[in-house]
Amino acid sequence: MMKIAFIAHDRKKDEMVNFITAYEHVFIGHELFSTGTTGLRIMEVTKLQIHRYMSGPLGGDQQIGSMVAQDELDLIIFLRDPLMAQPHEPDISALLRLCDVYGIPVATNIATAEILVKAIDRGDFAWRDLVHKYKPGVDE
Predict the structure, then answer these.
(1) Can you say whether the dihedral through the CA atoms of 79, 85, 91, 95 is positive or negative?
(2) Does pTM top 0.85 for this prediction?
(3) What are the residue numbers of the active site?
(4) Pairwise CA distance, residues 10 & 121, whole Å
(5) What is the tens place of the pLDDT at every residue in 2-31?
(6) Residue positions in the annotated binding site?
(7) Letter string b/e over residues 68-86, b meaning 16 or more CB atoms within 10 A of that residue's CB
(8) Quick one: which of 15, 63, 77, 105 has the most CB atoms within 10 Å?
């Protein structure tokens, strides 16, 4: 079972809902997390149970970032709106930096999200073994 988080900017929420609906069969059986409105929208149209955090601008991105830093997430699908300035851009940058530091796969667009979800579906998502080998502070 993987721990997967969903985040979507306002103009990407419909796209996220459609994507999750299409791959609902893959996400069933995994532990799911999301920022507030995104998670609510997904649960309204699927049978998925999602632990919802605050809205992104109110701290939800940071809450998910905390999970990354504590090694409590395996993957993030974060559909960003690259054409709209976000008032909480520093939080977004911090979250993406944490994903890089801790080797957490993060999809920021639907094409990358689909590749990662298909990898989950095939069962060939054993990246954690490699990540832990190179984790900061781990002696070789």
Answers:
(1) positive
(2) yes
(3) 61
(4) 27
(5) 999 999 999 999 999 999 999 999 999 999
(6) 9, 13, 35-38, 55-56, 88
(7) beeeebbbbbbbbeeeeeb
(8) 77
